[in-house]
Write a structure and sequence with these properties.
By secondary structure, the chain is of the alpha/beta class. It folds into two domains: 98 residues, Urease, subunit C, domain 1; 317 residues, Metal-dependent hydrolases (TIM Barrel, Alpha-Beta Barrel), CATH 3.20.20.140. Helices cover 29% and strands 20% of the residues. It is built from twelve helices and 19 strands. A hairpin with a 4-residue loop joins strand 1 and strand 2. The protein starts with 6 loop residues before the first strand and ends in a 19-residue tail after the last strand. It binds N-(aminocarbonyl)-beta-alanine and zinc ion (ZN) (2 copies). Its cofactor is Zn(2+). Catalyzes the stereospecific hydrolysis of the cyclic amide bond of D-hydantoin derivatives. Belongs to the metallo-dependent hydrolases superfamily. Hydantoinase/dihydropyrimidinase family.
């Protein structure tokens, strides 16, 4: 084996979740081999003067090529989705292998591997979605899959084709407890939503902005509290995903103050979008469909509460919840080729490439520290989802997943410049400070000076997950 370094990144200003130091980074066989000064010449050299060297991002919640009900299709598969991730500084993604009601979880995992193989450019793990916790799933499939490296799974308290009853939630949480796995919870009250939706639709209030009125904060607050109660009863940690604002935050903070292990995630849409992006009062146009996601974006006061909770340690992870539906597409937001009543619009917004720059702008504006940025976007998701220390840090032995950031570069986000396959971004026109200019995955330079270098589809590796580390 050659002892020559494959790559040396010189004069790196390294920032991890806990430390900041200047050094050269020596890479061999895809891993960080040495951190030090005056390293010998490598086969490839890179000068990082003036740039920050951060661990590649880990996006712990995104949807890529997820099988959809008839007529709907996600615009991004594993190739375009991971290409966009890499161009936004994210080197690891964790999308969802989703069980269908009446279907097998193992079969969903096998199908999802087929979708990823030969396509992914970034490394990837899988979460599971448990939609039908039959006795066989609870007793056999789930424990076996956990042992094989699928140690986190999402459950839904809403959506007819996915939601679990309270009793089923308790059963799934119990399996997580017995097998040391982590349950991610989509917390919204299904009956309240369907009751409100029927009323709104009955009154003819069907344009996109009514999506927000059908899922008010109270609906999320109640389900968040109920999920916390289930976790307390079963005595198991949970992670509440895509928290939208202060009412759910209050529940989570309350649980955390009582010593319960309630973890939480938020996403860019709750920092940058509001209900008005789905349509102003009196606006019955359809453009607002672009920002329809669940829970829905709220208002500036809630945005401020989410920023404060990020800085204050309420959240463990900041994910994209990238849900890539085209706008002008009969398989996307204009389902069947036409404007839909709000309750038929595919839910979710794209954001896998813009996740990190949008949060980094908060660092530039003094809203959170660089260490918090790394912790929320790379270190904690790597730990929670069993990928640390291979991912989530810059340390000897870790994969050489490194993003070099220009902290001063100002960029106006435009969909034309993004690398996903979606025909819009909800963040069009927003100007951010700080941009990931070079990106390495296992030592391979995939983005140079902001330019994607067309690495081979399929270079991304599947990452079986270890046990969750909660701190
Ligand atoms: O609206 C959203 N968030 N769609 C994606 C699926 C989910 O619930 O995360
Ligand atoms: Zn969800
Ligand atoms: Zn999601």
């Amino acid at each position: 084996m050659s002892t020559e370094l494959d790559l040396v990144i010189r004069n790196a200003d390294v920032v991890t979740a806990s430390d900041r130091f200047s050094c050269d980074i020596g890479v061999r066989d895809g891993r960080i081999a040495v951190l030090g000064h005056g390293l010998p010449r490598g086969a490839r050299e890179m000068d990082a003067s003036g740039l920050l060297a951060l661990p590649g991002g880990v996006d712990g919640h995104c949807h890529l090529d997820q099988p959809m009900p008839d007529g709907m299709r996600m615009a991004d598969d594993f190739f375009t989705g991971t290409r966009a991730a890499i161009c936004g500084g994210t080197t690891t993604v964790i999308p969802f292998a989703a069980q269908e009601k009446g279907g097998s979880l193992k079969a969903a995992v096998a199908d999802y591997h087929r979708r990823a193989e030969g396509r992914a450019v970034a490394d990837y793990g899988f979460h599971l979605i448990v939609a039908d916790p039959t006795p066989d799933v609870l007793k056999h499939e789930l424990p076996e899959l956990i042992r094989q490296g699928y140690t986190s799974f999402k459950v839904y308290m809403t959506y007819d084709d996915l939601k679990l009853s309270d009793r089923e939630m308790l059963d799934v949480l119990d399996v997580a407890k017995q097998n040391n796995a982590l349950v991610m919870v989509h917390a919204e009250n299904a009956d309240c939503i369907s009751w409100l939706t029927e009323k709104l639709v009955g009154e003819g209030r069907i344009s996109p902005r009514f999506h927000g009125l059908s899922r008010p904060a109270a609906v999320e607050r109640e389900a968040t509290h109920r999920a916390i109660t289930f976790a307390e009863l079963v005595d198991v940690p949970i992670l509440i995903v895509h928290v939208s604002g202060k009412e759910a935050i209050e529940q989570i903070r309350w649980a955390q103050s009582r010593g319960l292990q309630i973890l939480a995630e938020t996403c860019p849409q709750y920092l940058y979008l509001t209900a008005e992006d789905m349509g102003l009062q009196g606006d019955d146009g359809y453009e607002g469909a672009k920002c329809v996601c669940s829970p829905p974006p709220r208002d500036p006061e809630n945005q401020a509460a989410v920023w404060r909770a990020l800085a204050g340690g309420v959240f463990s992870v900041f994910s994209s919840d990238h849900a890539p539906f085209n706008y002008d597409d009969p398989e996307g937001k204009k389902l069947g080729g036409q404007a839909q009543p709000f309750d038929h619009i595919p839910n979710g917004v794209p954001g896998i490439e813009t996740r990190l720059p949008l949060l980094f702008d908060g660092v530039a504006r003094g809203k959170l520290s660089l260490h918090q940025f790394v912790e929320l976007t790379s270190y904690r998701p790597a730990r929670l989802y069993g990928l640390y220390p291979r991912k989530g840090t810059i340390a000897v032995g870790a994969d050489a997943d490194i993003t070099l950031w220009d902290p001063e570069r100002r960029v106006r986000i435009t969909n034309d410049a993004l690398h996903h396959a979606v025909d819009y971004t909800p963040y069009e026109g927003i100007e951010v400070t700080g941009w990931p200019v070079h990106c390495f995955s296992r030592g391979e330079m995939l983005v140079e000076n902001g330019k994607y270098r067309e690495p081979a589809p399929g270079r991304g590796q599947f990452l079986p997950a270890g046990a969750p580390s909660l701190v």
